[in-house]
Amino acid sequence: MSNKPAIILVHGFWGGAAHWSKVILELSRKAYTSVYAVELPLTSLADDVERTRKMIAQQQGPVLLVGHSYGGAVITEAGNQPNVVGLVYIAAFAPDAGESPGGITQEHLPVAAPNLVPDSDGYLWIKRDKFHESFCQDMTRDEGLVMAATQKAPLAGTFGDTISTPAWKAKPSWYQISSEDRMISPENQERMSARLGAKKVITLKASHASLASQPSEVTALIDEAGRATSQT
């Protein structure tokens, strides 16, 4: 197969680009040579979309965007760039026009909602002692400890930022639901994935951190999207 798309991985709230580390290795083993993980500022949807657009603009050929969690909202807005050929949502928000991650969350509050706490600067954190059970309960406690210590908090206002033009209405999409998710309720994931008209929807018995707890299965879906959008 020739001309596989470049893959740009977009993380969500409470994590950085390194959350994709296992998926990056799996993609490398599948001969994807142009894989990039954006480091978002998590200061506003506009800021995060602009950071992603800049990385998209550096690619000479087609780009497949992959978003985890809030990263799904980012790729929904950034995916309108002309060289973006597809969108993959990993336990992610896929808002419609005028929708925000916060508004969607209110439809079905996730189990771990009480474990979020704001700090004095307006950033929203997962309580350190609740991180493992909230975000990645299907990983080891040691892995949960590292994720808790390195969590990247968003400005709380980012939750309310809305989508203008959802790229999934014009670009092919794929979606992975996490059935044991405590950060984005599975009911919300099912509703969002159903309206995408996705090429494929899979459900994993996984926590919110499916990209780290089940990287092989997540990578297989990304690879399927990569094959479908490859140029021959």
UniProtKB/TrEMBL annotation:
<feature type="domain" description="AB hydrolase-1">
    <location>
        <begin position="7"/>
        <end position="219"/>
    </location>
</feature>
<dbReference type="InterPro" id="IPR029058">
    <property type="entry name" value="AB_hydrolase_fold"/>
</dbReference>
<protein>
    <submittedName>
        <fullName>Alpha/beta hydrolase</fullName>
    </submittedName>
</protein>
<dbReference type="InterPro" id="IPR000073">
    <property type="entry name" value="AB_hydrolase_1"/>
</dbReference>
<keyword id="KW-0378">Hydrolase</keyword>
<dbReference type="InterPro" id="IPR052897">
    <property type="entry name" value="Sec-Metab_Biosynth_Hydrolase"/>
</dbReference>
<dbReference type="Pfam" id="PF12697">
    <property type="entry name" value="Abhydrolase_6"/>
</dbReference>
<dbReference type="GO" id="GO:0016787">
    <property type="term" value="F:hydrolase activity"/>
</dbReference>
